[in-house]
Write the structure tokens for this entry.
Amino acid sequence: MPAPVFPHFTAPSSTSPAYTAPVTAPSPDTVRLSGEASSGGGFQEVFASAIRQVESMGQDASASVERFLSGDGEDLHTTVLATQRAELAFEMFQQVRNKVVNAYQEIMRMQM
Amino acid sequence: MSLFSALSVGASGMAAQRARAELLVENLANAETTRTPEGGPYRRKDVVFESASTASPFSSVFDAQLDSPTGVAVSDIVTDTSDPERRYMPGHPDADRDGYVAFPHINPAEDMVDLLGSSRSYEANVAAIGAVKDMIQRSIDLFR
Amino acid sequence: MLDRLAGQLEQYMDLLSTRQKLVASNIANADTPGYRTRDIDFQFELQNAVAGEPQTREVAGLQMKNDGNNVSLDRESRLLAENALRFNVAANLLKVQIQSIRSAIKEGQSS
């Protein structure tokens, strides 16, 4: 097993921005996951694409159900699988979102 | 094309074989019938099968025209028009001037074999409907 | 998600479905004069994943009856049972996959 790597801390000098800039606790509605934040941009994109994927699966499922009900010859197992996929994708997304919100809230609690 | 259409196909097969069996039974019952309301002996009847597209009541107009699967239908019932069989039976109430009686052209053994075949085909259609229904049920089971 | 896992199984079930429909047609037309048995080349369609309907073709090596019909009820009955069984197996495999994904999601819920 490789030796654990510890983050390297150095005490900021008295002239660095960390000392001189006003300290304000950011409120949740002013925080933006902007592209400039270290990992915020990448994560926002992942989130957005996940939302898009869940939605497209939902649309596929709805379309499949509609084709089945209107007798257009859609196989039942195709419809079942489409709805299951959409349901699972949504459930997974929900869990991820909950975790993200929880983690964020935890960080917010820490930041004092 | 949904599996449901295969149910219609099986049903058409059952209906066709039943019609066939009914006629075969009628032939067998009338194998010796020398007198009918139309006059003359009973004449053998036979079904003619034809492939037919089957559209279920649930299929859309689009699907019914495009790809409905091939079932079967009775396209015609043919009556035997050949000369009847003549047997010499002078004392018979239906005997003609020369003492001959006209009998139907029916070979009971042949029609019995046909009836067995029809029954077997009927059972096969029943089995087909059962198997398809089972597959549909499996798909439903995927929900939970 | 589920696409990579279930995609092939779903295609398998699609083909079995199509084949079973043809078997039902063959059985219904077992006594239709001039009717030829129809089938799909299962392995070919499975490996080639063609979009749209699989190609229906006639079957070689069947005995022709006097009226031009070549349906063998033995063959069709065998295929009927086989298709239904395979479909059953595929459905069960899919069910297991779906359930395991679902339980994995639920497990992550405890936090």
Q: What stands out?
A: The interface with chain B takes residues 68, 70-77, 80-81, 83-84 of chain A (CB under 8 Å). The CA atoms of residues 42 and 61 of chain A lie 29 Å apart. Residues 38-110 of chain A form one domain. The helical segments of chain A are 17-20, 40-69, 76-110.
